[in-house]
Specification:
The chain has 3 helices and 2 strands; from the N terminus they run ααββα. By secondary structure, it is mostly helical. The chain has one domain. A two-stranded parallel sheet has the order 1-2. Helix 1 packs across helix 2.
Length: 75
């Protein structure tokens, strides 16, 4: 269900080139999520410019738990 993803130097460099993220760390999270084909990025950071251009949908922890509880058969 959950996976710890390591980032590579190539992914860090790709993230650094993305100027549409307000914070560098957000672009690294995005690149890691893309690399592992994540369904969601779970975050509380919905501020303008932070994950607006994410390649992976973002979801709040509360909304993820609701979704998880609705789909208890998720493995």
């Amino acid at each position: 269900m959950f996976e710890v993803v390591e980032t590579t130097q190539d992914e860090i460099l790709k993230a650094a080139k993305r100027l549409d993220f307000k914070e560098f760390e957000d672009s690294v999270v995005n690149q890691a999520a893309v690399a592992c084909e994540a369904d969601y990025i779970i975050t509380r950071d919905f501020r303008e410019g932070h994950f607006n251009t994410s390649d992976v949908p973002i979801i709040s922890p509360a909304d993820f738990l609701k979704l998880f509880n609705e789909n208890e058969d998720i493995q």
